[in-house]
Write a structure and sequence with these properties.
Number of strands of chain A: 1
Largest sheet of chain B: 5 strands, mixed
Strand order of the largest sheet of chain B: 10-9-11-8-12
Shape of chain A: globular
Low-confidence stretches of chain A: none
Shape of chain B: globular
Largest interface: A-B, 35 and 41 residues
Helix content of chain B: 40-55%
Strand content of chain A: under 5%
Number of domains of chain B: 2
Order of helices and strands of chain A: HHHHHHHHHHHHHHHEHH
Helix content of chain A: over 70%
Number of domains of chain A: 3
CATH topology of the largest domain in chain B: D-Maltodextrin-Binding Protein, domain 2
CATH class of the largest domain in chain B: Alpha Beta
Distance between the termini of chain B: 61 Å
Number of helices of chain B: 14
Distance between the termini of chain A: 35 Å
Order of helices and strands of chain B: HHEEEEHEHEHEEEHEHEHEEHHHHHH
CATH class of the largest domain in chain A: Mainly Alpha
Largest sheet of chain A: none
Strand content of chain B: 15-25%
Mean pLDDT of chain A: 89
Oligomer: heterodimer
Structural class of chain A: mainly alpha
Number of helices of chain A: 17
CATH architecture of the largest domain in chain A: Orthogonal Bundle
Number of strands of chain B: 13
Radius of gyration of chain B: 22 Å
CATH topology of the largest domain in chain A: MetI-like fold
CATH architecture of the largest domain in chain B: 3-Layer(aba) Sandwich
Chain lengths: ~375, ~350
């Protein structure tokens, strides 16, 4: 074992003179930084602020006595995410084993003494595992996933709306924004992609124009414009800030989804459509049953990457006064009592973003390998 | 090209049409709706921030929102806080998404002339302040002749400081600039600077956030002006007047020593001025479209101006900012907090 690792080290880190130089400069620097960070985290940092303000970080200023609504939303999200995962990966015993430490970690963070929260976290993780297991055992369920996610999102809106949509916040808002945008931008993006390849030049122009305009302006501008335009155009509806934010994000990311899907459509060999046409299939049937399934297969990995992109862009909604995860952290720091905990709060934000981000990346990579199986 | 012009004209005509429709006063809208949409910041120490224990917003701006809700609707809890940022606060008012904004906004001519908002009375006077370490023994600005002042790069403070030196004839004083407030604060602590200079509210926040706030003193002197005020949509004098006099009411209440605690005694007062001010047996409220006891309601909710100040920026808070000797004191004590006559 030691001999092997020595060999690995020599081969990879000290193979050539330049490697030696690089390793000698970089490795001590990195070790020193890690040492500093860990020693700060273990000795100087006062982490008590994280459990104290965890509720604000997770759900913002959503009233504490209404927190059960947020929990219902979280459980629905967990089921949907589990089921989405189950479409691709079979649920196995070792997965269930891996979820137990996740539960322990979350429970430790939330505070073991709060029994209700520990139980609710267990319910959430069980819901996630349940969705995963059902979707992987019973293939017919997978067909229902898209309508189920629409119904799930509507249910979340219905449950969360009564205390006022202006109160949504924290990590839950970031995740909801990401989910709604990801789910809604997919059908719009597919339609736009087909529109851009349409035989009707009017439709083609409109779709191309829309996609190009959206891709050439910054997201923050689209979000801000939607935010100020909707109340001016429809003063009789009082559309909540959060809904306007979601509309802005969906409009913007639909253009990107359209371009991903278009790249997939172009990857489908011409022979496929020609063969279908020679069988006498209609243009609609060809697109629906021959072209789209093959195209989607190609673009699923970049689409998952797109979800990560949406999640990482979610903090931009601060511009319209929404309190997303990042802004919730800043809001805690604005309290004079906690002003000197900047590093603790930002470390927690960093770790959470890093965890979620690497999880999505991991799933995307696995998915790519899984989908590539057929074309090998 | 013609098509684009036509489309643009169409959109603007539409905007003008919808804007023309919303001609009713915000006051009527708020009363009809039953809640006040008040725009505040939620990341401004002392002015609008979240108390994580109670889950409620606190701060000077937040208290003014509550006072307005109490005065207009008779219930301070009927306020819905809408978070606005430095970028969105004016558009939020212009698109009627909020009825009033209290978000540490500095009054400037361009803001009233080119952005269509009207400012309310100034409720806090910020400005460039000087902070020194307590153990330096410095008590007034005059003690700092020949000292090294530090501020941030590219801010107006540098100019303000040099002109102060010139006016006072200080030859040896110099200004050092730093990239950001964090480095500036470190320089004060390490002794490289004798005094740190930036906006007073920011100084208070930095001192308050340090492990021991009592190590720092913010001198009462204010070197230039940065007055904060709430604002409402322009050309709605009914709404603006109601809010202006609510705020003046809080100033006058402090002058007349009417507090949250002794309000009930004053309600039974024989003094005709107090009776009229608090709306006992008829007052000023009707003329503004409010109930006669609107000032009493506001005081009951948040107290007079002095109490609001003490709650958020007073000696018992971490954001302590001395009031005496600054424009934030009552005019009777040499400050600029002044209410017109209530007669």
């Amino acid at each position: 074992m030691i001999a092997r690792s020595l060999k690995w080290t020599r081969h990879n880190l000290f193979g050539k003179p330049f490697d030696v130089l690089l390793s000698l400069t970089v490795i001590p620097g990195v070790l020193w930084m890690v040492y500093q960070a860990v020693s700060w985290a273990l000795t100087a940092a006062r982490w008590d602020i994280i459990p104290q303000s965890l509720r604000v970080l997770m759900i913002g200023v959503f009233p504490a006595d209404q927190a059960w609504r947020a929990w219902i939303a979280i459980v629905i999200i967990a089921i949907l995410l589990g089921a989405a995962l189950g479409c691709v990966f079979a649920f196995k015993g070792r997965h269930a084993g891996a979820l137990v430490p996740v539960w322990a970690g979350c429970a430790a963070l939330a505070g073991i003494e709060n029994v209700t929260n520990v139980l609710l976290i267990a319910v959430t993780i069980a819901a996630f595992a349940g969705g995963w297991a059902v979707a992987s055992r019973f293939p017919p369920v997978r067909k229902a996933l898209v309508p189920a996610s629409f119904i799930g999102l509507i249910a979340i809106f219905a449950v969360m709306a009564p205390p006022g949509a202006g109160l949504w916040g924290g990590l839950l808002l970031s995740i909801l924004l990401t989910l709604v945008t990801a789910v809604l931008s997919l059908p719009i993006g597919i339609l736009l992609a087909f529109g851009r390849r349409s035989r009707f030049s009017g439709l083609r122009w409109i779709c191309t124009g829309y996609i190009e305009v959206m891709r050439s302006v910054p997201l923050i501008m689209v979000v801000y414009w939607i935010w100020i335009l909707i109340p001016v155009l429809t003063p009789q509806f009082n559309l909540a800030d959060v809904v306007r934010g979601m509309i802005g994000f969906t409009l913007f990311y639909s253009a990107y989804v359209a371009e991903y899907v278009r790249s997939g459509l172009q990857a489908v060999p011409r022979g496929q459509t020609e063969a279908a046409r020679s069988l006498g299939m209609s243009e609609f049937d060809i697109n629906r049953s021959i072209v789209l399934p093959q195209a989607i297969r190609v673009v699923v990995p970049p689409l998952v990457g797109n979800v990560l992109d949406i999640f990482n862009m979610a903090p931009l909604v601060f511009i319209i006064g929404l309190t997303d995860f990042l802004r919730a952290g800043q809001m805690i720091l604005a309290n004079p009592q906690f002003g000197d905990r900047t590093y603790e709060v930002y470390s927690f934000l960093f770790l959470t973003y890093f965890l979620v981000g690497s999880l999505i990346t991991f799933v995307a990579r696995k998915l790519e390998a899984h989908l590539a199986r057929g074309s090998r | 090209m013609k098509l684009i012009k036509l489309l643009t004209a169409g959109v603007f005509a539409g905007l003008a049409f919808t804007a023309g429709q919303a001609s009713a006063s915000v006051l009527d809208t708020v009363k009809q709706r039953g809640t006040l949409n008040c725009g505040t910041d939620n990341t401004a120490p002392g002015f609008g921030y979240l108390n994580t224990t109670t889950g409620q917003l606190e701060g000077l701006d937040v208290d003014f929102c509550k006072a307005v809700a109490a005065a207009v609707l008779g219930d301070a809890s009927k306020v819905k806080f809408v978070t606005v940022t430095d970028k969105s606060r004016f558009d939020a008012v212009l698109t009627n998404q909020v009825d009033v904004v209290f978000a540490h906004t500095t009054l400037m001519p361009a803001r009233e002339s080119s952005i269509a908002v009207d400012f309310l009375p100034i409720n806090f006077y910020d400005g460039t302040g000087i902070m020194v370490k307590t153990d330096s023994g410095v008590e007034t600005l005059d003690d700092l002749d020949g000292a090294t002042f530090c501020t941030t790069q590219g801010s107006m403070t540098e100019t303000v400081l040099t002109s102060t030196f010139k006016a006072r004839g200080w030859q040896d004083s110099k200004v050092l600039t730093y990239e950001n407030l964090e480095k500036l604060f470190a320089a004060l602590n390490s002794g490289r600077c004798n005094a740190m200079s930036t906006d007073k509210s920011a100084l208070a926040a930095w001192a308050g956030n340090s492990p021991s706030p009592s190590d720092y003193v913010i001198l009462p002197d204010t070197l230039d002006k940065s007055p904060f005020g709430g604002f409402v949509v322009a050309n709605d004098s009914k709404w603006r007047n109601a809010l202006r006099w609510t705020i003046y009411g809080l100033f006058q209440a402090e002058e007349s020593e009417i507090t949250q605690a002794n309000l009930d005694e004053h309600l039974t007062s024989e003094d005709p001025f107090v009776q009229r001010f608090l709306g006992v047996g008829g007052g000023h409220g009707k003329d503004f479209g409010l109930s006669d006891d609107f000032v009493a309601q506001a005081i009951k909710a948040v107290g007079n101006y002095g109490e609001i100040y003490a709650r958020n920026l007073g000696p018992d808070t971490r954001m302590y900012l001395e009031r005496k000797g600054t424009p934030n004191a009552l005019w009777t004590q040499g400050g600029a907090i002044y209410s017109p006559l209530w007669n």
